[in-house]
Amino acid sequence: MLAIKTDQLTKTYSGEGGCRGISLAVPRGTIFGLLGPNGAGKSTLVKMLVGLLHPTSGEAELLGKPLTDITIRQKIGFLPENFKYHDWLTGEDLLRFHASLYKLTTTEIKKRLPEVLAMVGLSGDSHKTVGSYSKGMQQRIGLACALLPEPDLLFLDEPTSALDPIGRKMVRNIIVDLKNQGKTVFLNSHLLSELETVCDQIGIIRGGTLIFQGDWREISQSFRVKIILAGQEVKDKLQRLDIRQCQVIASNIIAKTHESNEAGMYEVYISCKEKSNTPELIEGLIEVGLKVFEVVPETDSLENIFLQYVSDNSKGR
């Protein structure tokens, strides 16, 4: 079953900008990350899904209900990127106000407020005014507001942008816990290392158009191998290496030659088209007289894949 389904969802401003023809399918119980350069249309898409913008055309469903069904919003949490809350309210007052917007009962509020404050690490600061909070604390109280209704679908727009490493880890743990409870989390973030850690699927949007959706681990353009080796004339032999579909992309000396040593140690990175090229690569290194001490397979990072997609004009067409 899908948590989010869109069909040619479009929002333009006088026929320009925004996003066009977005067709998404986000399964329930997953963590989905939306990537794109500034101005690509990410925030426009999220604002349509949470009801802050009306689509120009197209259709969408959230948790099996059409976008026009406002009752479903009680099951949706949203943390906007550039939010600004009332400085004079205490953290607890702010949560009570948002709880009233979600139409939580007095019993639900009494139970839920201490729970979300504990989740975001603000139990001891709920009596302080929001204006006295640090940027990280304001980010966390915003997350607490989004968590109030125990949402089945949570939209987080740059949720860790103002947080220190400890705060980012806390948010990651919350996101993973929500997934383990069967909730769906939709992330919009520029911190690709954060998305790489938690996301099951990603979508890449460029110029208002969705150019990829799926498991980013399946779209790596190359397979990379880190090899620790030694031997005489290492660089010359690497240049003579004749293994199709493999290419040396970097080599660094990690231990210099000593008088008692016939050769220094090198750390070499070699790009292969397929993982299956690895045995042939190792055989080739040995054949040219190099000694192989360690082989560590690596895949492209999400950042590299993202940059390839947004810079390659041939993709998504």
Explain the overall architecture:
The protein is an alpha/beta fold and 317 residues long. The chain folds into 2 domains: 2-215, Rossmann fold; 223-299, Ribosomal protein S6/Translation elongation factor EF1B (Alpha-Beta Plaits, 2-Layer Sandwich), CATH 3.30.70. The protein is 30% helix and 30% strand. It contains 9 helices and 15 strands. The strands form 3 sheets. A 6-stranded mixed β-sheet has the order 7-8-9-4-10-11, sandwiched between helices. Strands 1, 2, 3, 5 and 6 form a 5-stranded antiparallel β-sheet that branches. Strand 5 (57-62) and strand 6 form a beta hairpin. The longest helix is centred in the middle third of the chain and has 16 residues, at 165-180. The chain is elongated and about 75 Å long. It starts with a strand and ends in a 6-residue tail after the last helix. Keywords: ATP-binding, Nucleotide-binding, Transport. Residues 4-232 form the ABC transporter domain. Pfam families: ABC_tran.
